[in-house]
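Example record

The entry below shows one chain as it appears in the dataset: sequence first, then structure tokens.
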Amino acid sequence: MKPEELQNIIDKFDENDLKQKSVFGIFQYGGGSEESFIKANKEGLELFALQLLKASNEVDLILADKEKNNILLDYTENWIHQDSQTFLQYIEPTTEKQINYPNEENKTTFADKIMPYGCGLILIILAISTFVGLGTIIKWISN
């Protein structure tokens, strides 16, 4: 999108009104960052999106300026949920492009094919050994 188009979208939001009504937080429900979720109301999502749109509009300026290398996000404001566990402090713009690696298909090997049969064979051998051992113990005790 062109900067003018982004600015038109940004101007449609009433940031002060959104800040009054917004709730936004990032939480973890498990042990790692891959187990995260956002808890927010509609206004909170709009305000967060607004900050991202503003950052998107500034990316070219930040990349052109050698001294300024990130875009600060205001994570200490009242609209950020007080119990939020993750705070995004800034955005670091980059010119890197996503590298798409080809999906590798899982190739089944001979070992993968015989694994169930091998495990089953081991279980059968264990069962036979258990019965033979129990029979031997019973014969030994009865003598």
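Notes for this example: Strands lie at 24-28, 36-40, 71-72, 90-91. Residues 3-91 form one domain.
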